[in-house]
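Thread: Quinone oxidoreductase 2, structure

OP (GT): Posting the sequence first so everyone is looking at the same thing. Length is 281 residues per the record. Can we get the structure tokens written out before standup tomorrow? I want them in the notebook alongside the other entries.
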Amino acid sequence: MTILVTGASGHLGRLVVERLLARGAAASDIVAGARTPAKAADLGVRVVELDYTKPETVAAALEGVDRVLLISSSEVGQRAAQHQVVIDAAVAAGVELLAYTSIYRAGESTHILAPEHVETEAAIAASGVPAVLLRNNWYTENQLADVQYAGTSGVLAAAAGDGRIASASRVDYADAAAAVLLADDQAGRVYELAGDVAWNYDDLAAAAAAIFDREVSYVRQTVAERAAALEAAGLDAGTAGFVAAMDASTAEGQLDGGDGSLAALIGRPTTPLVEGLRAAL
């Protein structure tokens, strides 16, 4: 059985390859697809060029592959079209399983990042390719910049209100993907993957305080205040508004909760918030 991991030079992709090997997959059975193959040369597996914007590289990468992990593109606004290239290639190659890293509760989410994931899920369903959906909640590492700033300023500012986030570390999600790729009878399954403990920004401030051994205060902002502050810090208006909208989604509870599926898949508790942040730092 040959497994292809797309985006293998990225943070999540690299970890998936590592977890596949740790779970007993032979290096010869793993193919790492990367836009720039040299960036994945140290993974210890076969590396091929795979660029979502170059369909010919995707088709070539899928030759002889049985199972594919489609890691969602990092290019917001272009994701759905790029993912379609992989879906089409998976159908043409006759793969037995396509796994896709979607967003938590995609079917009901109003998160600003949800639409392209929903569109991709619909495209996968329409294609008829045997598929499994890995609906990942937030990555703890996404908070790294905020925590680093809090460590120097003593302030953690956000428009997240009292909303909670059931985040987990990338390695947790990577381990879950590896477990699914190596398991049988996964086609048709949908996993809502989240951390064991949902935290709010008061908890995040406390985590930053513990890591940097200083007082850190959570300053609650409105969405407009958050966007204005980010623009003042140097972000363009579009990016500032986008980040503020993500905060608003948190305040609405879009990333709260979890049913224990992630811990069950990986066979251990998910990485605690402070531990995940320390590792990322």
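GT: Both are above now. Quick notes for whoever picks this up: The domain at 3-136 is CATH 3.40.50.720 (Rossmann fold). The longest strand covers residues 97-103.
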